[in-house]
Design brief:
It is an enzyme of class 7 (translocase). This is Carnitine transport ATP-binding protein OpuCA. It contains 9 helices and 20 strands. It is of the alpha+beta class. It has 2 domains: 222 residues, P-loop containing nucleotide triphosphate hydrolases (Rossmann fold); 106 residues, OB fold (Dihydrolipoamide Acetyltransferase, E2P), CATH 2.40.50.140. Strands 6-7-8-3-9-10 form a 6-stranded mixed sheet, sandwiched between helices. A 5-stranded mixed barrel has the order 11-12-13-20-14. Strands 15-19-16-17-18 form a 5-stranded antiparallel sheet, with no helix packed on it. The structure holds adenosine-5'-diphosphate and magnesium ion. The site of adenosine-5'-diphosphate (ADP) has 11 residues, from helix 2. The site of magnesium ion has 3 residues, from helix 2.
């Protein structure tokens, strides 16, 4: 092969995504039970894809198809340039972590971590060196000899993480691994996952129904509902640019309000506003405008008048309800604020354009 040709091959390989999932479908037997509609996405090395959706939307089903625990009806999975959809789980070079750790309680931490290496036939002294290295990385230095039964829930999850990583998988799959842990521990585990991703550059796919966890950890997102993709994209896309009314609600956008669109402008209760460039293709006429509550700010000097309807402290921020030209809106104020119901003030819009959705047909 000429050097030019070889360089081209190398360049193509570099630009290929690490994981490419195309038109994956699955139907549980019998025929009328849940089916997962065509799913396609790509994942780059060192990135974390979050599969987000309510309970029963098909998140675990999709993850199990990638892991090889279920066989797809159709579609393909290419990992590192090679098809893997026909391979059994143990030949896919990936690890999976579940909510339940599946650790062996009668063994030590070290023995649990080493299981995968033992199966590969690695001699015991090497296994120990490797396992202790990994235990250090997950913050469990000196835990090698400890009985598993002496560990807390969070420590057990870290042992499960160490056991998955010790075999050096090319892909890490996580199915709601922290949903049993208390909120503080959950956050800590989230930051472990971010550290591991950064240090190892290992691509990960994580399933969760927890929006906050998803937004904190994900680089890419896939939102599922009833086995169908609702939206996929970056953090910006799913946070600010909902694909439809359902995603807007699911992503916790408080203000989805009426407007009348004409070309690049939309008439709303806040006056005449500019339409987001990506929404100009939305047909003219009645639309929904989507305003995250942080785009609205209380400002008594503003010419747009508002009357306070109520407020409640949510820990870290105060949720204020205000009436603006007959529309009830939600505004979030950082910290603890107290506004009297009926108080007259004003609001300011902190964005230069607004996201619009076609008004849903009832
Ligand atoms: P999620 O992880 O998003 O909560 P799942 O992928 O576990 O959802 O399940 C999606 C749907 O498939 C659910 O309605 C569930 O009841 C159904 N389901 C899961 N496992 C089976 C099975 N073995 N046989 C039939 N239906 C199943
Ligand atoms: Mg699940």
């Amino acid at each position: 092969m000429s050097s030019k040709k070889r360089r081209r091959v190398v360049l193509t390989r570099l630009s290929e995504p690490f994981l490419q999932v195309t038109d994956l479908t699955y139907q549980y037997a019998p025929a009328k039970s849940f089916s997962l509609g065509k799913q396609s996405f790509t994942l780059e090395k060192g990135k974390l894809l979050v599969i987000l959706g309510p309970s029963g939307s098909g998140k675990s089903t999709l993850l199990q198809l990638i892991a090889g625990l279920l066989r797809p009806n159709e579609g393909e999975i290419i990992m590192g340039g090679k098809p893997i959809h026909h391979l059994p789980p143990e030949k896919r070079n990936l690890s999976m972590i579940f909510q339940k750790t599946y650790l062996l309680p009668f063994l030590t931490v070290g023995a649990n971590v080493e299981i995968g290496l033992k199966l590969k036939g690695m001699p015991s002294h090497k296994r120990r060196v490797r396992s202790e290295e990994i235990l250090n990385q997950v913050g469990l230095t000196g835990f090698y000899q400890r009985p598993l039964s002496s560990l807390s829930g969070g420590q057990e999850q870290r042992v499960a993480l160490a056991r998955s990583l010790v075999i050096e998988p090319q892909l890490l799959l996580l199915d709601e691994p922290f949903s049993q842990l208390d909120p503080l521990l959950r956050r800590q585990m989230g930051s472990w996952i971010s550290d591991i991703k950064r240090m190892w550059e290992i691509p990960m796919i994580m399933v969760t129904h927890d929006r906050e966890e998803a937004l904190a950890l994900g680089d890419q997102f896939l939102i599922l509902r009833d086995g169908a993709e609702q939206q996929s994209g970056t953090l910006d896309n799913i946070y600010y640019e909902p694909a439809n009314r359902w995603t807007a609600d699911f992503m916790g956008i408080d203000n989805v309000l009426d407007g009348i669109k004409k070309g690049t402008r939309v008439t709303t209760f806040l006056g005449d506003l500019k339409v987001h460039p990506h929404c100009i293709r939305v047909p003219d006429g009645p639309v929904r405008i989507v305003l995250r509550s942080e785009w609205l700010q209380l400002d008594f000097t503003s010419s747009i008048k508002a009357t306070i309807e109520g407020c409640s402290f949510r820990g870290e921020y105060t949720e204020v309800k205000a009436n603006v030209n007959g529309e009830s809106v939600v505004i979030k104020q950082l910290g603890l604020s107290n506004y009297e119901r009926g108080m007259e003030t004003g609001v300011r819009l902190a964005t230069s354009n607004v996201w619009c959705l076609p008004k849903e047909v009832m």
